[in-house]
Specification:
Blueprint (H helix, E strand, L loop, with lengths): L14 E5 L2 H10 L5 E5 L15 E7 L8 H11 E12 L5 H7 L23 H12 L3 E14 L1 H10 L12 H13 L4 E3 L6 E13 L2
Parallel strand pairs: 1-2, 3-4
Antiparallel strand pairs: 4-7, 5-7, 6-7
Pfam families: Methyltransf_11
Protein name: Methyltransferase type 11 domain-containing protein
GO molecular function: S-adenosylmethionine-dependent methyltransferase activity
Length: 222
């Protein structure tokens, strides 16, 4: 949120921070201090968006998040409906989640297949052209004026500890794993990620780099 502050007008009426996670919102409340900010628990992929938020926003921002929403088609429709006429949204979404390949491979292992992959892999992991899928989402939602650009990202994470924390943080399955199986699951999960193309490691794992494609989307509601 702080990254947006330099770009906000001096006298904006309200900044609404939304997340599906109550715990995440509580963390934000305790660690972020922006003027005129309200924190709202909301599933942007739900069909039941509160009427209060329909045609409410001049601008909507989302960074590295939308690709993790299960009902992504509904999410784009909601974003369109939540914008005022003349409003604009700015999104960054990953072509694939860094962990997609691990979720896919773990779903083929008998011990872990019961947890499936339906709610973990990115919505277009199995698509030949995720970019075209996002363009269709924009069009189906009602956007007629938009730009979608692709950027290749190589980002240095630091060492092993930082890498493991990131990998654990992006895994939504962990709360569903039994206590008896949790450590074994984490080990298998991290091992799959070590073998993936999402990350590269130097000789002693003191420098780990992540590689991914990002879509940058700017869309206007006319």
């Amino acid at each position: 949120m702080y990254c947006l502050q330099p770009f906000l007008p001096n006298h904006y009426k309200e900044f609404v921070a939304m997340d599906i996670s109550e715990a995440m919102l509580e963390y934000a409340k305790n660690n972020i201090n922006l003027p005129n900010t309200r924190f709202v628990e909301c599933d942007v992929g739900s069909k039941d968006i509160d009427d209060e938020f329909i045609e409410k926003f001049d601008h909507i921002f989302s960074f590295y998040c939308i690709h993790m929403i299960e009902n992504i088609s509904q999410a784009f429709k909601n974003l369109y409906n939540m914008l005022k006429p003349g409003g604009q949204m700015f999104l960054t979404v990953m072509e694939y989640s860094l962990a997609d390949v691990a979720f896919h491979k773990l779903s083929k292992i008998p011990r872990w297949e019961k947890y499936g992959k339906q709610t973990t892999v990115s919505p277009f992991y199995y698509s030949e052209s995720p970019k075209e899928e996002y363009i269709k989402l924009l069009q189906d939602a009602g956007f007629k004026h938009y730009v979608l650009e692709t950027e290749s990202i190589d980002f240095e994470l630091g060492g092993e500890d930082v890498w493991q924390k990131l990998c654990i943080a992006i895994n939504p399955l962990l709360p569903k794993i039994s206590a008896e199986e949790l450590e074994d699951y984490k080990l298998d999960y991290l091992n799959q990620l070590r073998k993936s193309r999402s990350f590269s490691f130097n000789n002693n794992n003191s420098r780990i780099t992540t590689h991914f494609k990002m879509f940058i989307i700017v869309a206007n509601k006319i």
